[in-house]
Amino acid sequence: DKACRNRDLQSFLILPIQRIPRYELLLSQIYKYSGGKDKVTIEKAIEKINSICSEINETKRDVDNNSRRNQLQSLFAKASGKKIDLTDEFIRREGNLHVYWNG
Predict the structure, then answer these.
(1) What's CA 103's distance to the chain center, in Å?
(2) 5-36: per-residue pLDDT in tens?
(3) Pairwise CA distance, residues 59 & 17, whole Å
């Protein structure tokens, strides 16, 4: 469809998230040219936006880690025939893994 410019749904869903850092840039520019009470208010808004950006990044990192952890659990289960619980594990690094089972 021409109206969608060949974009899928996910590309539209991410748009509001991509706007948040742009607001920080915009407010930083406005801050440079403002004075008095406005400067304090804008500074608070910038701090809030930075806090929101940090929360979004942490949540995204957690979601990615959970997804990858579930994939690894499934791979281990298929390879070994045993269920491995990685629920409380955080993936720090990825690479080749060789597993040898005794028994």
Answers:
(1) 41
(2) 788 888 888 888 888 989 999 999 999 999 88
(3) 12
Residue 76 CA to residue 62 CA, distance in Å, equals: 21
Which residue carries 């950006």 as its tokens? 53
pTM over 0.85, yes/no: no
Q: Which DSSP category does 33 fall into?
A: T
Q: What are phi and psi of 52, to 5 degrees?
A: -65, -40
Cα(48)–Cα(42) distance, rounded to whole angstroms?
10
87 — phi, psi (to 5°)?
Answer: -55, -45
**Alpha-carbon distance values, 74 to 22, 58, 83, 90, 92 (Å):** 39, 24, 8, 16, 18
Give the integer Cα–Cα distance in Å for 69 and 89.
8
3-state class of 29 per DSSP?
Answer: helix
Q: Which tokens is 58 given? A: 């942490």
